Amino acid sequence: MEIRKATIHDVDEMQPLIQQYADQGLMLPRSAKSLYEHIQCFTVAVKDGKVVGTVGLHILWKDLAEVRSLAVDPGYQGQGIGRKLVERAIWEAEQLGVEQVLSLTYQADFFRKLNFHIVDRDSLPHKVWKDCVYCKKFDRCDEIAMVYYTQSFKSVHDPVASIL
Ligand SMILES: CC(C)(COP(=O)(O)OP(=O)(O)OC[C@H]1O[C@@H](n2cnc3c(N)ncnc32)[C@H](O)[C@@H]1OP(=O)(O)O)[C@@H](O)C(=O)NCCC(=O)NCCS
Predict the structure, then answer these.
(1) What local confidence, expressed as pLDDT, does residue 130 receive?
(2) Number of the ligand 1 atom closest to the C-alpha atom of 27
(3) Domain spans of the chain?
(4) Whole-number Å distance between alpha carbons of 38 and 6
(5) Are 69 and 105 in contact (CB under 8 A)?
(6) How far apart are CA 57 and CA 95, in angstroms?
(7) SS3 state of residue 102
(8) How many angstroms separate the CA atoms of 103 and 111, rounded?
(9) Which residues does the UniProt record annotate as the domain N-acetyltransferase (predicted)?
């Protein structure tokens, strides 16, 4: 299995992978146009010659990025692919100096395993909710807000702990 940055040639496979979960209300839909426009944000998992997983890392502000469109093909779940995709997104966030990686999710137990922590939704900046107008659950959102604190966060807020 290969984890690599997405290319424009992956979009035809990424779009239906995301759409099946958008249809279930698990994530926002992504048009092909949106994927092309934001392709640099995306990483894919490739196995058996096909795209079996996607994740997007979107920078929201100087200290905050968001994991979006995390999707693993149903036939390939439970093999560590979701974990590897999120770890790659976290690595990218670290490289960019971002302090916190956010996920708005229904998969709290999955993200807890990856050291994300539940935070108060009201503590998040308004720009986090910008795309919610595209969501079916706009007026009754029940997603859980979870944050991963990167090494950049630890070195700023707890410099002693970060070198221990
Ligand atoms: C959530 C999702 C990305 C997980 O991908 P995956 O490749 O099956 O997960 P992994 O195999 O990497 O699992 C990593 C760990 O999390 C656990 N895990 C996976 N899905 C879980 C879930 N829904 N609830 C609790 N634990 C879960 C695994 O057992 C594994 O634990 P381990 O390391 O102790 O063995 C995948 O199920 C998916 O695409 N779901 C539908 C779309 C979705 O909800 N995306 C999230 C939007 S924020």
Answers:
(1) 77
(2) 47
(3) 2-163
(4) 10
(5) no
(6) 12
(7) strand
(8) 8
(9) 1-139
**pLDDT tens digits along 111-164:** 999 999 999 988 888 778 877 777 777 777 789 999 999 988 888 887 776 666
User: Which atom of ligand 1 lies closest to the CA of 105?
Assistant: 48
Pocket test for ligand 1, best of 1, 51, 83, 112 (most atoms within 8 A of CB): 83
Distance from the alpha carbon of residue 146 to the mean position of ligand 1, in angstroms: 15
The closest-lying atom of ligand 1 relative to the alpha carbon of residue 67 is 48
DSSP symbol at 98: -
Smallest CA-to-CA distance from 22 within 143, 131, 133, 136 is with: 136
- Output the CA 152–ligand 1 centroid distance in Å: 26
pLDDT digits (tens, 9 = 90+) for 44-95: 999 999 999 999 999 999 899 999 999 999 999 999 999 999 999 999 999 9
Could you please state the CATH topology (level 3) that the domain comprising 2-163 is classified under.
Aminopeptidase (3.40.630)
What are the structure tokens assigned to 112, written together? 């807890």
